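Duplicate of #3305? Posting structure anyway:
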């Protein structure tokens, strides 16, 4: 170790210089000797030692002056410096240490003491150099980390500012520390006005209490939350927003506050309300249709007992006519009349049971799933005998916003109509092909094609009219209800004949605008 350590010994007394040089060289140190301050400075300028042993009293530039010059120069400032002097005056010692020397040895010294001190200061010097290297290395790393953090914050800010949703961030004390550009554009307020709890000024006064209470309780429990409230837009209109927040934690798991997003759901709410209203109308239409069906079947069922009552009454009349009325037969006729009347009564009783009111709900619906359900539902139906229903689903189909039961009804109507249309075909030629696809220009497309005769040109424009039917037993309401349902969902439906034969019914359903609850996650 010692051979790599270089020491400069400065002393104007030749014996002392030789003694010091001899002791240190014997220990394996690289020693350079200088017998004056001037030479010492020249030596340091040419070759940086790791330790300087410096006599104080020298003619010309004395030890203190050498020390001052070395400490004044950046390159030599950190070289440890030990004063050696015959004098033992306290002032000199104090001055030497005040100038920045690390130690002070008085002549005569003991060899062991000198070596021990030299070793100690060389080691301290080495440790100090090592420490400085580490510190500067760490400083470089720290700067790099700060730079990376700055870049990542810049990236986050850019991303957040270009995101189509409003994004905000809070500190652990519930105070808001960031709003993206989308938020600021929405409220029309500058950032410094929104920070802290300034944002609350734009919340509708009626929603403020509930908004703060939900936010606070979720925040204290560190739970995700979703709150709906009205927020004033720059033009003064209050808009309904869905605000979602999630707690965020620093790498060590320390709670750092919340990050969240707000989405303007006013249009979606309005669309849902319209859909709900339209669906109610369809429910009404459905009930009217159901009533029609019920009335028809009741009329049919009443017809039988009423006809029987009439014929029994006529028979009884006949048995009473003439000379010897057959009272036993009359009795039989009357018994039958009573029985038929009871049957008619049963049928009428059914009329009194109220029809169930349908309930509707708008939800995100997977059309592929609905088609699958319908095909499962009819798989044992007599209508399917000798026919096939094939489904070609579009993978990863966008979901539609709608009432599942109503969508189900449209799909069922179209498939059943297709099967009806093929009824007079031979077994192998009876098929219905259902397909789903992403529609050109947006939306989800459902097509139902069949191998029937198709629709007469003159009927094409009329098939969706209420009560239009070409079937003997038909009611003519299936397609009109289907059209109302599709239109209520904001979609469209049309019929055409395929180039080969058979009809194709197509409908396009608008894609559900899914609310991204965790947009900012
Ligand atoms: P219904 O089936 O009770 O007649 P719809 O409203 O479902 O009532 O259908 C109306 C009419 O549209 C049918 O009577 C028929 O003339 C025509 N139609 C419906 N689907 C098809 C089809 N797949 N092929 C040919 N004609 C069809």
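Output from current build:
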């Amino acid at each position: 170790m010692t051979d790599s350590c270089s020491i400069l010994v400065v002393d104007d007394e030749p014996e002392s210089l030789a003694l010091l040089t001899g002791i240190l060289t014997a220990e394996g140190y690289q020693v350079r000797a200088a017998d004056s301050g001037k030479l010492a400075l020249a030596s340091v300028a040419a070759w940086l030692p790791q330790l300087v042993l410096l006599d104080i009293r020298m003619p010309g530039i004395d030890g203190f002056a050498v020390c001052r010059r070395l400490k004044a120069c950046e390159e030599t400032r950190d070289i440890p410096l030990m004063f050696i002097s015959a004098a033992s005056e306290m002032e000199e010692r104090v001055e030497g240490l005040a100038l920045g020397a690390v130690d002070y040895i008085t002549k005569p010294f003991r060899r062991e003491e000198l070596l021990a001190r030299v070793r100690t200061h060389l080691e301290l010097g080495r440790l100090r150099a090592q420490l400085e290297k580490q510190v500067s290395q760490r400083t470089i790393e720290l700067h790099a980390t700060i730079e990376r953090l700055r870049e990542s914050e810049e990236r986050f800010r850019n991303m957040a500012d270009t995101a189509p949703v409003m994004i905000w961030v809070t500190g652990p004390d519930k105070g808001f520390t960031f709003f993206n550009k989308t938020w600021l554009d929405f409220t029309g307020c500058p950032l410094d006005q929104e920070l802290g709890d300034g944002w609350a000024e734009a919340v509708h006064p009626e929603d403020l209490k509930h908004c703060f209470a939900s936010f606070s309780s979720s925040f204290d429990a560190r739970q995700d939350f979703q709150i709906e409230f009205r927020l004033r837009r720059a033009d003064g209109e209050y808009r309904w927003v869905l605000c979602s927040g999630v707690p965020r934690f620093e790498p060590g798991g320390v709670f750092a506050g919340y990050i969240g997003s707000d989405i303007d759901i006013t249009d979606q709410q309005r669309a849902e309300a319209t859909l709900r209203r339209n669906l109610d109308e369809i429910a009404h239409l459905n009930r009217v249709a159901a009533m029609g069906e019920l009335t028809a079947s009741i009329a049919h069922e009443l017809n039988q007992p009423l006809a029987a009552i009439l014929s029994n009454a006529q028979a009884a009349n006949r048995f009473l006519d003439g000379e010897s009325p057959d009272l036993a037969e009359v009795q039989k006729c009357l018994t039958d009349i009573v029985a038929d009347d009871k049957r008619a009564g049963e049928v009428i009783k059914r009329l009194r049971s109220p029809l169930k009111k349908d309930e509707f709900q708008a939800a995100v619906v997977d059309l592929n799933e609905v088609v699958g359900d319908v095909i499962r539902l009819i798989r044992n139906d007599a209508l399917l005998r000798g026919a096939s229903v094939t489904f070609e689903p579009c993978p990863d189909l966008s979901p539609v916003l709608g009432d599942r039961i109503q969508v189900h009804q449209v799909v069922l109507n179209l498939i059943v109509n297709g099967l009806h249309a093929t009824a007079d075909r031979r077994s192998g030629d009876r098929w219905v092909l259902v397909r789903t696809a992403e529609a050109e220009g947006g939306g989800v497309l459902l097509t139902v094609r069949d191998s029937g005769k198709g629709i007469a040109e003159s009927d094409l424009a009329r098939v969706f009219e209420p009560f239009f039917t070409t079937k003997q037993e038909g009611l003519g309401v299936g397609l009109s209800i289907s059209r109302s349902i599709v239109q209520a969902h904001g979609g469209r439906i049309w019929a055409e004949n395929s180039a080969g034969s058979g009809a194709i019914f197509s409908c396009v359903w608008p894609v559900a605008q899914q609310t991204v609850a965790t947009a900012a996650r």
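Confirmed duplicate; merging threads. Residues 413, 417-418, 421, 450, 452, 455, 459, 463, 468-471, 474-480, 503 surround adenosine-5'-diphosphate (CB under 6 Å). Residues 266-320 form the longest helix (55 residues).
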